[in-house]
Amino acid sequence: MAFVAVVVAMTRKRVIASRGRLPWHIPQETRLYRSIVANGTVVMGRRTYLQMAKSWPGRRCVVVSSSGFKSPALDVCPDAEQAIDKARSYGDDVFVIGGATLYAATIGVVDRMYISYIKKDYDGDLFFPQFDEREWDVMDRRDYAEFEHVVYVRRRSKY
Ligand SMILES: NC(=O)c1ccc[n+]([C@@H]2O[C@H](COP(=O)([O-])OP(=O)(O)OC[C@H]3O[C@@H](n4cnc5c(N)ncnc54)[C@H](OP(=O)(O)O)[C@@H]3O)[C@@H](O)[C@H]2O)c1
Prior knowledge:
Layout: E1 4-11, E2 15-17, H1 27-37, E3 41-45, H2 46-52, E4 61-64, E5 75-77, H3 80-88, E6 94-96, H4 100-106, E7 112-118, E8 126-127, E9 136-143, E10 147-154
Parallel strand pairs: 1-6, 1-7, 3-4, 3-6, 4-5
Antiparallel strand pairs: 2-8, 7-10, 9-10
NADP nicotinamide-adenine-dinucleotide phosphate binds at residues 8-10, 16-17, 20-22, 44-48, 51, 64-67, 69, 79-80, 97-102, 105, 126.
């Protein structure tokens, strides 16, 4: 059955961005991220979409925006719940890929998290929300040179 997951790369202090961009450049993490979301429908906030639009050819995506943002051939929904419903209607797994505003709005409802913990410490100004590890089972944990990747499954799935 299809699931709804967040996908994020963050430091151990939960930094996800600094001044509007990723503070690191880790091609291995980027490749892993792309392979995770490859066969699903992605949901993202307007700012993340505008940042990534050029590197987003052909993949089905739903953008969350309540300010009237529109783009041809793009699903835009006014809140996170409607965006996830729209993404789920396509039948594939759904990946919420950021940014900070959207993570905060969805962490309470997703049933999986794909988290890359960047080993080096970076300063930043946007953070992934805190979560209670006791509510999650670790389904997979892999160590890479510059990050550790952990897949969490919610103990009691909401979808
Ligand atoms: N480390 C990572 O894995 C990762 C992943 C993705 C992004 N990022 C970083 O995150 C940053 C962007 O994050 P951000 O928080 O500034 O922006 P964002 O979440 O990408 O986009 C924020 C905008 O999306 C819309 N939105 C988001 N949640 C909404 C909700 N629940 N209801 C209605 N509208 C909602 C609003 O658009 P309107 O203003 O149009 O209403 C809001 O202004 C970038 O710097 C990017 O590099 C990091």
